[in-house]
């Protein structure tokens, strides 16, 4: 049995805090619950969780501020929970680095499914190797291999980012899929999990146009041809993630170097 996943819950409402804690524990997480933004941020620093849920309305500082502080040192999956979901708040949350934004009136099954989908696309190998959420998450083949390797065997030496061939390359932008690294002319990019996943998907698809719904399904880990329902809220979220990605790349939507918008259709790489 692998190491358990770690989650931090930041929530000032006692009932919601204990129900979130219970739900995450049932999903296999060791949970550290805190009732203020300050304590929550410190708990994230101390416990290095895989998943953090943050209440938007906290007593000391708001959830967006908590998110910003956490993002300065952690690449955990961050989920904002809002009592009264609001478009402008959602945009702020994604801009500050949230991976998901949910109403507090979430269905437990939906939250579990979303966390499972996020964990299926780990940003770093250690998250997958932690073997958390057994039964919920299938480890990618690479992580399974490393788990099955007897410990006496030497580890494969870490890839040198400066010399290893990238899996995808386009006009100086390179992506290593396995190592989950991206760089522009060799200068590493600091991307959130979601931004990296979007970039990877666009690089994989090249000049083929992908709709916002395709991008949403990719992030959910759904094959895009199943036609599963995609809400407007999710499409809006993908737009925000994409504009964050562009900002990190220093790419302009009007004169794109890498990511082109095909009006009314979706996105693709530049020629
Ligand atoms: Ca609250």
Structure notes:
- This protein is an alpha/beta fold.
- It has 2 domains: 5-138, 3-Layer(aba) Sandwich (Rossmann fold), CATH 3.40.50; 168-269, Winged helix-like DNA-binding domain superfamily/Winged helix DNA-binding domain (Arc Repressor Mutant, subunit A, Orthogonal Bundle), CATH 1.10.10.10.
- It has 10 helices and 11 strands.
- It has helices at 14-26, 37-47, 63-71, 87-95, 108-119, 125-129, 141-148, 193-205, 212-220, 232-249; strands at residues 5-10, 29-34, 51-55, 77-82, 100-103, 168-170, 173-176, 181-184, 187-188, 259-262, 266-269.
- A 5-stranded parallel beta sheet has the order 2-1-3-4-5, sandwiched between helices. The protein has a 4-stranded antiparallel beta sheet with strand order 6-7-8-9, with helices on one face.
- Helix 2 (37-47) packs parallel to helix 3.
- The protein is globular, with a radius of gyration of 19 Å.
- The relative contact order is 0.10.
- The structure holds calcium ion.
- Calcium ion (CA) is lined by residues 12-13, 55, 57-58.
């Amino acid at each position: 049995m692998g190491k358990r996943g770690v989650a931090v819950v930041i929530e000032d409402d006692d009932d919601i805090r204990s129900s979130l804690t219970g739900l995450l524990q049932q999903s296999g997480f060791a949970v550290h619950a805190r009732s203020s933004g300050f304590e929550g941020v410190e708990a994230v620093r101390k416990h290095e969780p895989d998943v953090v849920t943050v209440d938007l309305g906290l007593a000391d500082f708001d959830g967006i501020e908590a998110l910003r502080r956490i993002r300065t040192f952690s690449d955990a999956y961050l989920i904002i929970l809002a009592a009264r979901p609001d478009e402008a708040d959602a945009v702020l949350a994604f801009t500050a680095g949230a991976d998901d934004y949910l109403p507090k009136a979430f269905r437990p099954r939906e939250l579990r499914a979303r966390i499972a989908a996020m964990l299926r696309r780990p940003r770093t190998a250690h998250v997958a190797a932690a073997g958390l959420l057994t039964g919920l998450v299938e480890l990618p083949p690479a992580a399974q291999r490393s788990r099955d390797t007897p410990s006496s065997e030497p580890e494969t030496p870490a890839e040198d980012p400066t010399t290893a061939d990238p899996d995808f390359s386009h006009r100086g932008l390179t992506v290593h899929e396995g190592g989950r690294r991206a760089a522009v002319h060799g200068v590493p990019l600091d991307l959130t999990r979601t931004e990296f996943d979007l970039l990877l998907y666009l690089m994989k698809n090249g000049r083929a146009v992908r709709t916002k719904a395709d991008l949403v399904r990719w992030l959910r880990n759904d094959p895009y041809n199943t036609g599963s329902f995609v809400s407007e809220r999710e499409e809006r979220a993908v737009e925000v993630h994409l504009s964050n990605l562009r900002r990190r790349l220093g790419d302009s939507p009007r004169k794109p170097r890498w990511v082109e918008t095909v009006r009314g259709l979706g996105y693709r790489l530049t020629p």
